[in-house]
Amino acid sequence: MSDIQLYLLEVDKDKQEAKNIAVQSGVKLRNRQLKLIDLITSLQEYINDKDDAAIRAKSVAYLADVLENVPSKVLSGQERRLLSDFILGRIEGDLEGIGHSARALIALEAQGKWDAETAKTVARTFVDYANPLKQFKLQTDRYATIQLFDILLSKYRTPLKELHDADPEFMAAFVALFEGEKDPRNLMLVFSILQVPMTEWDIHAHAQDLFDAVFNYFPVTFKPPPDDPYGITAQDLKDRLRDCIAATSDFAAFSIPALLDKLDSSSMNTKRDVLQAIQACVVGYTPNTINQYSVPLWDALKFEILNVQENDLAEASLQALALIAAKFAENEGRLNTFLGTIIKECNEHLEDAPTKQSQAAGLILHAVAGSAPTVADKIAKGVLPKLFTLHNSSESLAKRRGLLEIFNEIAKAYVGLTLAAPSTNIDTFQESAAEALQATLRAVQRAPKSEVSLRLTAVEGLAFLLAIPRLLTQDQTYQVVDAMTDVILHETIQGHGDIRPQSIQALGEMAHTCPAAIRDRAIPAFMAELPDAPDGNYAFSPVLEAFAQLSAEQQVFDTVVRRLKNKLGAAKHQNASASYQRALLLATLYAFTYGTPVRDEDGVIKSSYYTEYAEPLIRDLHEAASVTPNMQDTAEIVGRICNIILRPQGVHFQNTIHNQHMFWTAPTEGHADMAAPYLESIAPLSLYYYAALRPEVVEPTEILSLLKTLTSEATNEKSDGPRLHLILRHLSLLINKYINPKTLQPTLEAAGIKLDTLLSSPTATPTSTSLAFTTLKALLIQGRSPALTTTYLQALLALLSDPTASIAQRFPALLAEDDILIKENHCLVSGLYKQRTFNQTVPLLIAAVQQASSDPQIKQNHLIALSGILKWLPYSMLQPSLSALVPPLLQTLDLPAPDAKAPALTIFESVLMHEPSLVAEHTASLITRLLNSTTTTAATNTTPGQTSVTAANVASVRAKALQCLTLVPRQLKRETVVPYRRQVVKKLMFCLDDGKREVRAEAVRCRKAWLGLDEEEEDDD
Amino acid sequence: MEVDNKDNANPTILNPSDLPSRRQTKLATDKPAGLFDSLLPVHPLPVDHSSLSSDDEEDREEIDEQEVYDLISSISDPEHPLSLGSLGVITLGDIAIAAPSSPRSRISTVTVLLTPTTSACSLTTVIGLGVKVRLLQALPPRFRVDVRIKEGTSQTADEVNKQLADKERVAAAMENRSLVQVVNTMLATCE
Fold first, then answer.
1. Which residue of B57, B142, B175 is the best one to mutate when testing the A interface, meaning the one whose CB has the most A CBs within 10 A?
2. Are residues A945 and A989 in the same domain?
3. Could you say which protein family the record assigns here (chain A) (predicted)?
């Protein structure tokens, strides 16, 4: 049997097998076992079968498959030419297997480039004989043909263009070929094929045909099927279609009227597409073309801006206007005409400012002016004089505010332009600068303080004026900075009328644009305002807080911290109050924490800050603590400043510091009696200092002796208070960062931490229990001693079954956020520690809750511990176990323990948001428990089978419960929740009268959601 | 292009910063959170009951005019996508809460006076209805709600006031589906 016979047998049964046969034929051709002529001859009988069209198509498919698989260089140029003539010749008489013919031609083309004539013949044959493609029902038939044209128009543009040039009828036929295509994959290609003539050929006479051919698809409403293997999105089609519409100015006569017509559509999506297409047209068409349509475009776009339907539509319209202005920027005449209309209409809206339309006018002026300096120049010339005349002649403060808002928009455009090109000509704008300055300063300085919006507008305007380089003289700049500083320093309005926050922000922006003026004027004014030693009534916080915020700007950072340092020195010298000194220290800490200090080339904060700021502070603290007890508070602030500068420094620098630093570990000579209070005072500094050091900087012997000291201090500590807590944080740092995991157990024992004993005695003291939890926490986070950690964790869980032990409440501490055990402090933080803790505790706790039903106390212990662990875990970690977690969490809501309830409610909130189906079967009990959690008075729980009294709920629990309850009707199926509507709405009435405003607000929201159920019911009827 | 057939196509809009809000009217005696407070976070002790303690439960925050304002100022106008607060239809000064008239009564009265954007605004009744419905839903039952048109601001004030004061008529209006729909759209913007 010949290959073609075998192929025809297989092709309907096994596509792959048929393909293999074709591949084999290709191999035979290469090996000369088969001659091309014989192959063609063997086809004759089938390819010309008069009675069976399917056989003819399949024969062409075989030929295409062979050609696609024949190795290159097997067929000579002569043979390839013969083959393409053969295929094209067939098409003239028989269109069966058109797609395969196209595939065969594509395969031939891939083996060797066609000459111009062949390309033309191929194109002509299809255009003349296969027209229109929509007659072929198979997408693959059309797709292959379209692919062929895609190749023709990417590689053989000149020959195809010649076809068009030689024959005026060609284009119409060419366009008709693709008419009516609906398949998205085909359309993607068709759009890109048609874009070639649109962009490159002279198609003036065929503009309408070509335009209609693509615009018929506008707007694209294609929704890709969910399992679309080709991944074509509506956006892909929209993008290509838009490129076609914008391809040539010849379309303008059709496209612009059509687009403007569709802009009146009631569909927001259509409008969105129209506006994007208009933008593309403005960019793509010639300035002259756009000029012809500038009036209708302006009218339509203006309407979208003045009558905002959706913000993004107005935004897109503004952008389109800006693009038009940019298009005309180089042509005086066009620009004058276009802007003339805009300026005239905007000026009309100035008259009755402030209105919705004057606001819109401001947006328009901003968008247009921002498009090019020449445009801005004309806007400034056309609008500003009028604006200030109106402003100066109006007594209405609201009107002045409205006008200044528009001025701000124009100024903002200039800020953008000068930022992009600092040399932008600002002469015209400058002509109004003095007037603008006067108007804004007057509003800030002399308007009644209750005119908040006017003053805020003016503050914003002042910041803009300063942001435009070369606009103001130095004196004027000083005036602005002085005005801002004055508001910040001297206005003490509380409540309505307070514009300090915005002024502080504006001064911060000015520090960026004019750092010198801030250094020359604002900073000295701040310093003059801050006394060295304030008397008891002086409220220094507002001034200091504002001053510290200037540190956000790097150009003034150094000045800010240096002045703070000097002021602190003076305050100490003058024996200023402790609270003032503390505030100055906090301001410094703020600057280093949230400000922008200078960094070295590696991005590390400059080490000289340490020597300049941290070291003197430590020295002062050391001296003070040697004579005065209870300096912990200062020590903590100094410690944090030291920590933040020191921790990113390299080993070398830290080594140097560590070697010199040991002086502060003991009180200064002559104060031996102060030893114990001294050490207690500087303990926080010690903690933050060791937190900053890299592990290799400290010797193991030093760590061991520190561990011993701290452990014995902890054991001797009687009360479970802040002092113990500080020691324990220090211990957890040392255990996590400095102890080698390999020698962990011996080191801990050498230091006196015997976990086995600590965990095995149920009558442990609070101190020893705390010590055990601390150690375990350090190890959990580190994750390097898994076996030991697991043993201890299980010992801890076992203690929960002892009804007399009260360790359940401590479980939240295990995973609680910790600002010491973090990577920045060079601690070992395992990425998996939360997951690991979850795996080792949560399943056990859930099981224990189920088994412990006999003893309520034991059950409660486990529930509280569970909630304490879950509190810190991300929702994604809980997700796989949620169905097991829901029952115990529901029981947690019955506990008289607000600390345990809050995490449970947070989880229910997430479950209701993401997987409501998980709680659907518990709807009744969830609603009852949530309602019980909203009450302030102790309520009796009426869950069947058990009756217990719930303690009063705190405000945050009540609010969270209401938030959850709000989600119930939204997230659960209607029929599940409707039966509870009456009960819930009635109960919520009491929440509307809750003592806390925040809870009442939640209750209102919640009640609205439940009342909403009713409406749907009516709609359904 | 769409023809403007609204009663007042270009109303004056109040700037949000001029609208009364709780943050701005906070009493000077309330200690504001200082900028530096966050620098020294308070570390909760291992066993800590203070973080959720109920000692803040004692001082009750009474429902005041600002709270009523917040409930209704976010209602949107039926003809503009703007809130009644920003249009000046509702102002803080036109909300009054009267304490119970006798010590034995628990009933307080909330009076809200509306200022229509134009004196001929045909939607005044609907706006009044929206405000009334919102307050009935959001205030505890010990409040009597009285919504009226401010004197001298509307040509139809008397008629509208009569309708709004009539319980039966309000109830009947809320049976009217198209009216319910309008009111719901207005209230949709309320939190």
1. B57
2. yes
3. Belongs to the MET18/MMS19 family.
N-terminal to C-terminal alpha carbon distance within chain B: 34
Q: Are A315 and A354 in contact (CB under 8 A)?
A: no
Domain match, A1016 and A908 both:
yes
Task: Please state the ipTM of this predicted complex.
Answer: 0.89
- The answer to whether position B36 is within a domain reads no
Mean pLDDT of chain A: 90
Beta strand residue intervals within A524-654, DSSP E: none
Collect all residues of chain B within an 8 Å Cβ-Cβ radius of residue A868: none
Range of the domain at B83: 62-187
pLDDT digits (tens, 9 = 90+) for A267-296: 999 999 999 999 999 999 999 999 999 999
CA distance readout (Å), A971 to A927, A1010, B185:
13, 12, 21
Which stretches within A822-954 are classed as H helix?
833-851, 856-870, 875-878, 882-892, 898-914, 917-920, 923-932
Q: Does the residue B153 lie in any domain?
A: yes
Q: Write out the residue range of the structural domain in which residue A979 sits.
A: 898-1020
Q: Judge whether A244 and A196 are in contact, CB under 8 Å.
A: no
Kind plus residue range of the DSSP H or E element containing A502: helix A500-513
Q: Does A314 touch chain B (CB under 8 A)?
A: no
Predicted pLDDT at B52: 43
In a domain, A444, yes or no: no
Of the three residues A112, A137, A162, the one that is the final residue of a domain is A112
State what percent of residues in chain A have pLDDT above 90.
68
Q: Is A51 exposed, middle or buried (0-12, 13-18, 19+ CB in 10 A)?
A: exposed
The whole-angstrom separation of Cα A4 and Cα A950 is: 85
Q: Do A70 and A167 sit in the same domain of this protein? A: no
With the CA atoms of A988, A989, A991 and A995 taken in that order, what torsion angle do they form, in degrees rounded to the nearest 10? 180
Total number of domains in chain B: 1
Condensed to tens digits (0 to 9), the pLDDT of residues A396-452 reads 999 999 999 999 999 999 999 999 999 999 999 999 999 999 999 999 999 999 899
**Element spanning A627, H or E:** helix A615-627
CA distance A191 to A193: 5
Q: A117 and A16 share a domain?
A: no
Q: What is the pLDDT of residue A1020?
A: 43
Verify that A103 and A123 share a domain, yes or no. no
Q: B77 to chain A, minimum CA–CA distance in Å? A: 14
How far is B3 from chain A, CA to nearest CA, in Å? 11
Domain boundary among A82, A112, A142: A112
Q: How many domains does chain A have?
A: 3
Say whether pTM exceeds 0.80.
Answer: yes
pLDDT in tens, A454-513: 999 999 999 999 999 999 999 999 999 999 999 999 998 887 888 999 999 999 999 999
| Same-domain pairing of A98 and A120 | no
Each residue of A520-531: pLDDT tens digit?
999 999 999 999
A313-342 pLDDT, tens per residue? 999 999 999 999 999 998 999 999 999 999
Residue type, A116: A
Contact A858, A801 (CB under 8 A): yes
Tens digit of each residue's pLDDT (9 = 90 or more) over A350-365 = 998 888 889 999 999 9
Smallest Cβ–Cβ distance between A590 and the set B10, B28, B35 belongs to B35
pLDDT at A1021 over 50: no
Q: Is A663 part of the contact surface with chain B (CB cutoff 8 Å)?
A: no
Rounded distance, CA A904 to CA A892, Å?
7
Q: pLDDT confidence of B56, banded at 50, 70, 90? A: low
Query: A135 with A159, same domain?
Result: yes
Compute the count of residue pairs across chains A and B with CB atoms less than 8 Å apart: 144
Determine the residue type at A82: L
Report chain B's mean pLDDT, rounded to a whole number: 79
- Statement to judge: residues A49 and A95 lie in one domain: yes
| DSSP at B39 | G
CATH code: domain of residue B82: 3.30.300.130
Quick check: A714 and A724 in contact, CB under 8 A?
Answer: yes
Across A487-615, the runs of DSSP E, i.e. the strands, are none
